[in-house]
Amino acid sequence: MGQFNVMTTQEFNEQIAQKSTWVSAVKREMSKVVVGQQELINRLILSLLCKGHVLLEGVPGLAKTLSVKALAGTMQAAFSRIQFTPDLLPADLLGTMIYNPEERRFSAKKGPVFANLILADEINRAPAKVQSALLEAMQERQVTLGETTYPLPNPFLVLATQNPIEQEGTYQLPEAQLDRFLFKVMVDYPTRDEELLVLEMMSRTDTLPTTTPVVTVEEIDESRRLMNAIFIDPAVQRYIVDLVRTTRMPEKIDRHLEGMVRAGASPRASINFALAAKALAFTRQRSYVTPQDVKDLAHDILRHRILLSYEAEAANKTADNVIDSILSKVPVP
User: Fold this and answer.
1) Quick one: 114 and 159 in the same domain?
2) pTM exceeds cut of 0.90
């Protein structure tokens, strides 16, 4: 367990339980503002721990923006919402160099990407040049303006949204760029009871509920250090690799999937599986990863990394159908 190898498992579990109390505090605060959407909230917390980014797909009005704002409020973090449009330029996102005639020199004017939490709303509405500028910032966690490179703040989390029902005037994200996202989360409609609660909370014109700070950046960094020491058994590591490799040739475990997949997940999926499984074990106050942790994450980690064939799309198959089949056939350790 790295630097924690001198501890007993019980001591390590106790330390994780002590250092992870902010997770439930953040969830409590966010529940004051966001009704339901527990899956989305859980994935946002995991992505914070993993320093990963999230791609959301869901129709408008499902509290995607509200969730990110609420999360920012729990940690006193800077929040930026960027509405992607076809006429957006990379400089609108990253910033640019401004000439000051009095001082006779250029100075950097930083763009909205210099925030802790970024909501890239309808990322598929901007052209490739803007998409790649954001995705480069996500990967390198720095932006170069002029001759100077500026680091992005810590934490830095991008939540990008896509509208699945409106494709006119959109620029689909290339597969290589989709692979940069830790999770792709499908956001669904609330239940009837949840929608009634939304109605009660939001159908007023006075002050709406907000979140208050319950966690610091230092606490999150400390949690990451503990999370890195969480144990993954070699058998679970092999299970992760088997799942990812099976996405490339799913017909080997299910003949009904022959010809359904054009390309499977890259090794980046295996890395993200391990990171996210450790983060999930941390939030569940456990010092080791179980195969169930891996299974619980499989859909959100793999669905944007599996490219379906035209035959699969014609048969109304989805990436989730392929993942279900893989999970049912790959032996669990």
Assistant:
1) yes
2) no
